[in-house]
Amino acid sequence: MIASSLKISLAATFLALTTLVAGAGERPRGVIELFTSQGCSSCPPADALIKTYADTHEVIALSYAVDYWDYLGWPDTFAKPEFTERQKAYEARFALREPYTPQVVIDGRAQAGGLQTDKVEKLIDQAAAAPRRPVDIAFIGGRRVDVGSGVAPKGGAEVWLVRYDPREQDVVVKKGDNRGQTVEHINVVREIHKLGLWRGRPAAYRIPAAREDGLAVAILVQGPRGGKVIGVGRMKPAAPRSANP
User: For residue range 56-72, what is the model confidence (pLDDT) as tens digits?
Assistant: First the structure.
């Protein structure tokens, strides 16, 4: 299981990061991305990491279900090819031999296996110490997001919209390596869209309509092709409710 000390270290570390402006009073300081699969026998303990941080305001914790383990006998109920493609961008960024699960990516700056608690803690500390030039993010109603001025990476940055379900969801796996287990999920990513490029000048982006109700919205301003995350914003749904597929 994920050690409780990781939660303490994470909260303390990200308090040192530059505050980024978000809508609805949310001011996250960083993002943790977990790549996981219901068909991965070692993933359930890493899924607990996302559950641990789901209610914190310091970070956004996101869970992406990938589809390349579906051939083992259980098609992940949340997996989409675009989530696998996002992980592949990190694979190239970190010069990995191949994608794997569970994988944790911190602010697009570092990655580690989801069960490597000590390494994850160390990389969080390094992310906190890295130089930062913050960019402001503000939601204008529910259909527009503004990104302020700042220093963009060479070639500009990508502005990503991530919609995720903040509700706890339990999935009973009926086939494959996790057969008979109930896998607990939270902050499951349901949609991801690239809104456009940001080149350091203030810019506004249209937020596409959601495909389902009850989803929270995260905005990531990020270097191209899985680069460093330089801006984070979040807008939560008005009234999250429990759900089980």
Answer: 777 899 999 999 999 99
